[in-house]
Amino acid sequence: MKVGPLLAEKCNGCHGDDAEKIRGEFKTLTREDLLKGGESISNVLVPGDPGQSFLMTSVRWQDPDYEMPPKQNDRLTQEQIGWLEQWIKDGAPWPDEKAQAAIRLAESKKTETAEGIIVATSGGLSDDWTYRRYQPEDLWAFRPVVRPTFKIQHSSLATPRSNAADGVKSDERRVMNEEGAAAVDRIHAAKLSAAGLKSAPQADPRILIRRASFDLAGLPPTPEETEAFLTNWERDSEKAWESLIDRLLANPHYGERWAQHWFDVVRYADTGGMANDYERSNLWRYRDW
Q: What is the pTM of this model?
């Protein structure tokens, strides 16, 4: 069950069942379609003989007029080409729908095989998509946690510095070395450095608290919060900033604010939308949860 899903993924977009999208009067939906060929090539599939099967010429990009799939990013790997070659050598077997369903059912019970792992989803448009497999190294959840290293020009990395400790003016910045910076700062600085850019000048503390409050909580700071932050900033700007961020992250409004972004990702709505704008009467339970 490698060739069928491969054809569905790589070929059926242009050679499937959509009459308006079919190219060259050629389909890849069934064995009979492959044997029939297209408007200009008849020997697309010659069971038992990969050398005479134009399908192999096409997927190997050996004919500049028939390079399939046509996009470099969709090009078959050597392993996938090997699957097709072996399939043709074996006579191009094509199980009927009942046999395919039985094979898929058996395979679906195997979470992990040599072909990869199945990721639990809510289901795809077809069983081929629902039970598709991934190599563990292609999924972030299975990658080992590593500490990245960065090459940073020190002028790209900056942070506020306390003026009380060493007499530096409040609008000045100090450049941190790589070891002294937070990981997210190092990532940010590495991107700036690679682009030949430097950090923006240090913003006024009154602007900083507004930016942080709107970004994390979705609300402006109260006058009392602003005055307290400005007072703390004069004493120790770094500590004041860290305390502000910690307080905002602990605020329930932070969860509410970032849940809004999650709702955009999952396409939350209280109604169906578009022409059939029916009410989803119980969806508010998910929102509140």
A: 0.44
